[in-house]
Amino acid sequence: MVRLGNDWDNIIGGEFQKEYYLRLREFLKAEYAAYEVYPDMHDLFSALKVTGYAATKLVIVGQDPYHEPNQAHGMSFSVNVGVEIPPSLRNIYKELHDSLGCYIPNNGFLVPWARQGVLLLNSVLTVRAHEANSHANKGWETFTDAIIEALNRREDPVVFLLWGSYARKKAELLDRDRHKILEAPHPSPLSASRGFFGCNHFRLANDFLLSLIKSPIDWQIPNV
Length: 224
Known about the structure:
By secondary structure, the chain is α/β, with parallel strands linked by helices. Helix content is 33%, strand content 11%. The protein contains eight helices and six strands; from the N terminus they run H-H-E-H-E-H-H-E-E-H-E-H-E-H. The strands form two sheets. It has a four-stranded parallel sheet. Strands 1-4 form a two-stranded antiparallel sheet. The longest helix is centred in the first third of the chain and has 16 residues, at 19-34. The mean pLDDT is 97.
């Protein structure tokens, strides 16, 4: 039985007993035994462990983990300290600099966001080394959609940042009348110039939180 150690246990704990998840678990046992898989199995649920259900103010939806060594640690777009900042995250930092004046930090470790209520949720939580999307359609999407649907049921509004066509499909699960849905192209170098740059999502998200009498997110990642 997976224990997340916070209120997610009561919200989605039942998913771990469902048939799809039991099949996923057997698949993962075989994958971790036979291949290099990221992130480390102890980091699979880092996003949920750090950012509880009631504490979630904002969700950034990613697709699947980084698939090169030492990068992924269980949070979308985030990498471990000491790892080169990936291109998409570098573009996120550029948008933060241009819209809010944040300096470009020397690392891509986004845990400071997570501790403020930013749920950094990938749709698929594992990947085989060097093989992007290799664990797609194995059951993770059902699990993470259950997380999004649970947040959608909350009376307390949530901000959802949906970047790129994959993430934007998640809008179908959401009540736009209650929650703040911000959509833009993906921040990857291939698409950032087509509308991610200049989207102003970080300021808009904080404006919405302030309208709810909630503390805004401090988007500045400190240097290490």
